[in-house]
Amino acid sequence: MLFPHTETGRVALRPAGPQDATEAYRILFQLGAAGLPVLDTFVENFGEGLSACFLVHRKDTDEVVGLSTVSTATPAGHVQVEVHLAGPEAAALAGDVHALTVNFAFAMWRVRKVYVHRTSPDTGALGFGAAGADLVRPEAVLPDHTYFHGRLWDVHIFAVHRDDWNTHGVALLKQSV
Where are the beta strands (DSSP E) in the chain? Predict the structure, then answer.
């Protein structure tokens, strides 16, 4: 049985509610997230379509450095996670935050797959290191699917399957918890 960890030695995922919408917007705006609505609309709709939403805090400073979300599950047993990290330590924290978010989804809901969408075919940015080869499966590419910074980008869809997470992901997470 999986435990829904929300902390490692370096980061803590703290539930984000309506009072945190402005902070979440700040993070997304700072990162230049595509398609952000105006702040009032974002605040009004914050959390819609999500099963879980977290602000990511560095444990050493308690600074908010990111946003992590889990979508509502589909009838087929799929969710999508999104991790947005800001600041110079983003790459160093990516593995912890992705692992916590994926593990949380599998621990809390009976889902078969957790999807991650990226504009890069490189799974290294997820921060799983060599374990990523055993955990993250490419599933599809949507050519020229999103428009951002004046150009069209492909969207690469990756999946983490529950069986793979149970076999390899739990051990990966235990290294950080």
Answer: 11-15, 50-58, 64-71, 78-85, 113-118, 136-148, 151-161
Is 3 within a domain? no
Average pLDDT score, the chain: 94
For the full predicted model, state whether its pTM sits above 0.90: yes
CA–CA gap between residue 43 and residue 106 (Å, rounded): 28
Instruction: Find the CATH number of the domain harbouring 100.
Output: 3.40.630.30
| Contacts (Cβ under 8 Å, ≥6 apart) of 38 | none
The rounded Cα 91 to chain-centroid distance in angstroms is: 13
DSSP codes joined into one string, 78-104: EEEEEEEE-STTHHHHHHHHHHHHHHH
List, for residues 138-167, the tens digit of each pLDDT value.
Answer: 999 999 999 888 899 999 999 999 999 999
